[in-house]
Amino acid sequence: MLKYDYQQPDLFEPSWGVRPELEGVRDQLNDLIPGSGRCEKPMSANRALEKFRVAQNLAYDLFNNGLMNSRIHFSKFYGFSPFTGNRHYSLDRDGWSRLEYLVENQLTPIMLKAAQEQGIKAPYPNLPWSTDGEKE
User: Fold this and answer.
1) Which has the closest alpha carbon to 114: 32, 34, 9?
2) How many domains in the chain?
3) Structural domain boundaries, residue 75
4) Residue 45 — φ and ψ, nearest 5°?
5) Which among 24, 55, 92, 103 is placed 20 to 30 Å from 117, CA to CA?
6) CB distance 33 to 49 below 8 Å
7) Domain-located, residue 124
8) DSSP code string of 65-110
9) Considering the domain boundaries, does residue 3 fall inside one?
10) In a structure prediction context, what are the per-residue pLDDT tens digits for the chain, which is 136 residues long?
């Protein structure tokens, strides 16, 4: 019997818009986010945490579901929609890397601001952002 031993390589590393040096910060923030629904006090004490929750959920839908659940919300939040027209799309490794880059550039400052709000110490990457998460 002929043995078939082919394994398809990963299309991309699934960072989903999170820089490797911020994965620990993401995990700490996720510990503060409820399993479903909004954060407590989303309009006051946890405003930045709630924004991070939404941004992360939309990034998840992009990279896991191809925006099948929240294309319009993603477009309004991130300001672009990678897939238009019919839902049949084809992206190569470079296409997915470009989407990772676009999401990362918006998700990183949102995450840093949420970390500051929650008192989580974050290794701030070399970005044009100050330690308080606001543009300089």
Assistant:
1) 32
2) 1
3) 20-32+40-118
4) -60, -30
5) 103
6) yes
7) no
8) HTTTTTHHHHHHHHS--S--SSS-----HHHHHHHHHHHHHHHHHH
9) no
10) 555 555 555 544 557 788 888 899 999 999 999 988 999 998 999 999 999 999 999 999 988 888 888 889 999 999 998 865 555 566 777 888 888 899 999 999 999 999 999 999 887 655 554 444 444 3
